[in-house]
Design a protein that fits this description.
alpha+beta; 297 residues; globular; Class-IV_PLP-Dep_Aminotrnsfr; binds pyridoxal-5'-phosphate; D-amino Acid Aminotransferase, Chain A, domain 2; D-amino Acid Aminotransferase, Chain A, domain 1; lyase activity; lyase
Length: 297
C-alpha cells in the first residue's frame, strides 16, 4: 500500500472485551487525499483532542506501549473517554502490515472529542514517510531558550492548562519554532519564567554534567518523553548515572553536552545555545542514533 496510509477507527470503550478478533471491523481504510472528517469536528474547530507520533523503522513500530500509555494519560487529563489500548495496538499492527517495510516512517494516532454535540470521539491513524533527518542528526541544532510564560508550579496551580497532555493544540509550539527561526536558530528550549528548563516544542531535553545525564523532572508541565525514557534505560544499562531533577538555565549553559530527543528526529546534539557554542559529543550522539534506530519495544 502506498503512503500516506490512513485508518479511521471507531473507538471502543477502554474496558470492551479484548479478544481482538473483531477489532478489524472497527478500522476503515480511507483515501488520504479525500475528505474524511466532518467540518464540525472539534479537533479542527478547537484543537480539542490528543495525539501521539511514533516511528516505524524497517517495519518495526517503536515503543508502542509507552506511546499508548501516554495517549491514555493525555486522554485522562483532557477528560476524554479513555482509549482501548488493545484496539489501538491492533490498529498500529494492521497499519504496519500495509506500509513499506523499509526505511523510516511516522505513525500519528489522533483521538479527538468528536463532532460538536456528537455522541463519541473521533479517532484515526495516519502513516506517512518520515522527514529525512539524517543530516541534522550529524550536524546538530542551534537553539535559543524561550520563556514559556509560566513558573515551575503552574501545572499544579492551573491543571486546566493541560500542560502535561499531548493535545492537538500545537499552535504555541509552532509559533516558538518560528521565533527561533526568526532569530537565526533551528530550535528552541522552553524555560519557566523563574528560569528552569522545560522541553523543546517537539522534544525532550537531556544534558550531561560531570558525567551524569539529567532531564527535567517529569512534572505536570511537560511531556514525559518516550525517547528520553528509552535513552535513560540504555544509559543505565551501560553503567551511566541518570537523574530527573530541576535544571536551571545556568546549568544548561554550563553542560558538557545537550541533546534534544524525540520519536522521529531521534537524538540531535545542541551545538549552540543562545549564541554560545556548546561542546558536542559526536561519537555518543551516533551511538544514541544507532540505538534509537534499533527495534525497541
Ligand atoms: N515534548 C513535546 C512537547 C513533544 O511534542 C514531544 C514529541 O513530539 C516530546 C517532548 C518528546 O516525546 P517523544 O520522545 O515521546 O517523542
Amino acid at each position: 500500500m502506498p503512503l500516506p496510509y490512513t485508518l479511521l477507527i471507531t473507538p471502543l470503550a477502554a474496558d470492551a472485551p479484548d479478544d481482538g478478533s473483531w477489532f478489524a471491523e472497527t478500522f476503515t481504510e480511507v483515501d488520504s487525499s479525500e475528505p474524511a472528517l466532518r467540518v464540525s469536528e472539534l479537533s479542527t474547530q478547537r484543537g480539542d483532542g490528543v495525539f501521539e507520533t511514533l516511528a516505524v523503522v524497517d517495519g518495526h513500530a517503536q515503543e508502542v506501549q509507552p506511546h499508548l500509555a501516554r495517549l491514555a494519560r493525555s486522554a485522562q487529563i483532557c477528560e476524554l473517554p479513555l482509549p482501548n489500548l488493545a484496539q489501538w495496538s491492533a490498529a498500529i499492527s494492521a497499519a504496519v502490515a500495509q506500509i513499506p517495510q523499509q526505511g523510516e516512517l511516522a505513525i500519528k494516532l489522533v483521538l479527538s472529542r468528536g463532532v460538536e454535540n456528537g455522541p463519541s470521539p473521533t479517532a484515526w491513524l495516519h502513516a506517512s514517510a518520515a522527514t529525512d533527518f539524517s543530516a541534522v542528526r550529524e550536524s546538530g541544532v542551534r537553539v535559543i531558550t524561550l520563556d514559556r510564560g509560566y513558573d515551575r508550579g503552574v501545572a499544579e496551580r492551573a491543571p486546566w492548562l493541560l500542560l502535561g497532555a499531548k493535545t492537538l493544540s500545537y499552535a504555541v509550539n509552532m509559533a516558538a519554532l518560528r521565533e527561533a527561526h526568526r532569530r537565526g536558530a533551528d530550535d528552541t528550549i522552553f524555560v519557566t519564567s523563574d528560569g528552569y528548563v522545560m522541553e523543546g516544542p517537539t522534544s525532550s531535553v537531556i544534558l550531561r554534567h560531570n558525567g551524569v545525564f539529567s532531564t527535567p523532572a517529569p512534572s505536570g508541565a511537560i511531556l514525559h518523553g518516550t525517547t528520553q525514557t528509552s535513552l535513560f534505560e540504555y544509559l543505565e544499562r551501560h553503567g551511566h548515572s541518570v537523574s530527573y531533577r530541576d535544571i536551571s538555565v545556568e546549568e544548561l549553559r554550563g553542560a558538557d553536552a545537550v541533546w534534544l530527543v524525540s520519536s522521529v528526529r531521534l537524538a540531535v546534539a545542541v551545538t549552540e545555545l543562545d549564541g554560545r557554542q556548546l561542546p558536542v559529543d559526536a561519537p555518543l550522539t551516533r551511538l544514541f542514533t544507532e540505538y534509537l534506530l534499533s527495534p525497541r519495544d
